[in-house]
Amino acid sequence: MVETVHIVRPTHLNPAGRLFGGVLMQWIDEAAGIVAKRHCMSNITTASVDNLRFIRGAYQDDMVVIRAKMTYAGWSSMEIRVDTYVEDLTGIRKPINRAYFTVVALDETDRPKEVPGLLIETENEKAEWEGALKRRENRLMRKEEGF
Predict the structure, then answer these.
(1) Quick check: pTM over 0.85?
(2) How much is the pLDDT for 106?
């Protein structure tokens, strides 16, 4: 699990004065990548992002907290759930985004390699694993359909 914090600066804003989605995408991709690299101890690549759901905006000077956690490990792929919040000065966090990343471990020749298994200890982790299996099945169906 990884948690990062960013301050929204003027260079991060879109013309409407909200955090630009591309900047947030970079931040959450980096957090997911760190989780995956720590787990497989090798280079990785982002294979897909799904369920990228924008709940509300973030604005200049907001503190954006990103929490990334692995939910599934297959042979070479890993699913990382990334939740993003705006945190106010009292520490209260309001969700602004959730996404699921599929990340693949790579060997020295940039070919997929085997990753360690994921230790499931809590009921919440078990539920995430079960959800990840369903999301994986949906991804494979979409791939077969050409999406």
Answers:
(1) yes
(2) 98
